Amino acid sequence: xxxxxxxxxxxxxxxxxxxxxxxxxxxxxxxxxxxxxxxxxxxxxxxxxxxxxxxxxxxxxxxxxxxxxxxxxxxxxxxxxxxxxxxxxxxxxxxxxxxxxxxxxxxxxxxxxxxxxxxxxxxxxxxxxxxxxxxxxxxxxxxxxxxxxxxxxxxxxxxxxxxxxxxxxxxxxxxxxxxxxxxxxxxxxxxxxxxxxxxxxxxxxxxxxxxxxxxxxxxxxxxxxxxxxxxxxxxxxxxxxxxxxxxxxxxxxx
Length: 254
Description:
Layout: H1 2-15, H2 32-42, H3 64-94, H4 115-121, H5 124-142, H6 164-169, H7 188-217
Helix pairs in contact: 1-3, 1-5, 3-7
């Protein structure tokens, strides 16, 4: 799914921007020991696996605690994106929305097409709208919603900022997580258990979505999916293939 690839690229690009210099919170700071403890809960068999020794690094001279905050945020974020992509791939393969896709009345692509082919069939303007929304969400996350510290400066990894500032000053909008406050009294034990479950689900989803992509792009590469894979001649890692390139071309197709 090229949308999945686009989302991953957008998330990665924003995540590589270091936050402003602020005093780190000792309460929310993380260490390698924290990673090891979480890893053992997530997978008691494999436990802590860091062959590149990333947990010992000092990214951009920000310190080891900031580096670990970046690593934890990155894994949680990309796991969530992969879960969206995995579910989206399955839905796109079986469901077509009954309403028009554009104001001109163009219908949504048929599920007879693979999700990658469906992405290619979407108008360029619609792709840029999706890209713009993703970019806005990333910017809000990087800015902490105007109320939270950066995730490299003590914010709880994976905690997406509330839209309260935007909601109070610009336009009503629901928060992405728990918009109705059903989980505001959740116990710390439940939060910890759900965090471990989310990590495992995110890791599995990353394997799942790339399994789908590989099965479509490289016939026979995923034998379990041979019967449902639809060969795809394009490149799922180039979301604007044939429409826009940083090396040339008009980003608006005009």
